[in-house]
From TrEMBL:
Pathway the protein takes part in: Amino-acid biosynthesis; L-methionine biosynthesis via salvage pathway; L-methionine from S-methyl-5-thio-alpha-D-ribose 1-phosphate: step 1/6
Source species of the chain: Apteryx mantelli
Active-site annotation: 247 (proton donor)
Lineage per the UniProt record: Eukaryota, Metazoa, Chordata, Craniata, Vertebrata
InterPro entries assigned to the protein according to its UniProt record, in alphabetical order: IF-2B-related, IF-M1Pi, IF_2B-like_C, Initiation_fac_2B_a/b/d, M1Pi_N, NagB/RpiA_transferase-like
Name of the protein in its database record: Methylthioribose-1-phosphate isomerase
Length: 358
């Protein structure tokens, strides 16, 4: 069975409902933006690249089905702008959806200036743009996997390496190969992975439910640990590198990622273990000077107090449940792995500008 988070063909989109994994594999139809917003918000689909893909493809499906003003091109442009604003608001920390919304708006603005452009032309532009994203994400992930594996193997003189990863950054979070998990996949494909340690990733358990599922599915040697075992694993189990994903990388390299990433970076620094962030340039936000400006989503307290609908925390306790934290750039000692190469945080701004052709 091949694992896919997103199934798309023109006019039809469905997502693997990740709330039901690993117990049940169920694809759900997403007939438009409203359903996508709910699925993203409820974390039926999650992970920065997958959020943007499902958001944009849901708009494509809706427009293919005839939503929006039929003939009036400026009205259709305004309609698309409004739908994009709605999608961006679903989860604020991951920047991919916001960046794609910006690119789509700019593309439509340019297209709308061509003489005689029709509402249908604009619809087609959105659909083509969204479809191109799927392919681009797949290619970016493959490049990230290759660059990351090469960098780690050059830096570490071992025949095979042990990597610790956090949250889920694999097939379920992207169009297919994954970012940090793509690096793990690439090492494994080259016969150079000794073992992957995946953290449970409390409170939502993306590691235990999703990453473990992917690793077992692919036959990759892997061990699940509680989040609180990570420092001990670095000291006692021969972890050679930590590789995590990103929801947003600021211009100076500060990185927002799943809660718990920051403490992994602190522990990695203490143990002299190189710490890598693997993310496509679509997850970088060069307009934000530092991580202090990244909005951090706070999730319902029930994710902490309850387990599968059963209350486990003492009644009456106050809860703080940030979904992400920011790792300062100075702790990203291995580098930031993007589709164009691996950069020290201080080199990122220039590398992104060069990749854009500025
Ligand atoms: O809350 P989630 O599950 O959407 O958080 C996911 C992460 O933090 C991932 O590391 C990040 O989005 C990168 S996924 C390739």
């Amino acid at each position: 069975m091949s694992l896919e988070a997103i199934r798309y063909r023109r006019g039809s989109l469905s997502i693997l409902n990740q709330l039901l994994l690993p117990g049940q594999i169920r694809y759900e139809a997403v007939d438009g933006v409203e359903r996508a917003w709910e699925a993203i918000r409820a974390m039926e689909v999650r992970g920065a690249p997958a959020i943007a893909l499902v958001g944009c493809l849901s708009l494509a499906v809706e427009l293919h089905g005839g939503a929006g003003p039929e003939r009036d091109a400026p009205a259709l442009e305004a309609f698309v702008g409004e739908r994009l604003r709605h999608l961006v608001a679903a989860r604020p920390t991951a920047v991919n959806m916001a960046r794609e919304a910006e690119r789509l708006r700019a593309a439509l603005r340019r297209r709308a200036q061509s003489p005689g452009v029709t509402a249908q032309d604009l619809r087609d532009s959105v659909i083509e743009h969204a479809e191109a994203l799927l392919q681009k994400d797949l290619e970016d992930n493959r490049s990230i996997g290759a660059h990351g594996a090469r960098h780690i193997l050059q830096r570490l003189p071992h025949a095979s390496v042990t990597v610790l990863t956090h949250c889920n950054t694999g097939t379920l979070a992207t169009a297919g190969y994954g970012t940090a998990l793509g690096v793990v996949r690439s090492l494994h494909a080259q016969g150079r992975l000794a073992r992957a340690y995946c953290t449970e990733t409390r409170p939502y358990n993306q590691g235990a439910r999703l990453t473990a599922f992917e690793l077992v599915h692919d036959g990759i040697p892997a061990t699940l640990i509680a989040d609180s075992a990570a420092a001990a694993a670095m000291r006692d189990r021969g972890v050679h590198a930590v590789v995590v994903g990103a929801d947003r990388v600021a211009a100076n390299g500060d990185t927002a990622n799943k809660i718990g990433t920051y403490q992994l970076a602190v522990a990695a620094r203490h143990h002299g273990v190189p710490f890598y962030v693997a993310a496509p340039s679509a997850s970088c936000d060069p307009a934000l000077p530092t991580g202090a400006h990244i909005p951090i989503e706070e999730r319902p307290g029930g994710e902490l107090t309850d387990f599968q609908g059963v209350r486990v925390a003492a009644p009456g306790i106050d809860v703080w449940n940030p979904a992400f934290d920011v790792t300062p750039h100075e702790l990203i000692t291995g580098g930031i792995i993007t589709e164009t190469g691996v950069y020290a945080p201080g080199e990122l701004r220039q590398a992104l500008a060069a990749a854009r052709g500025d």
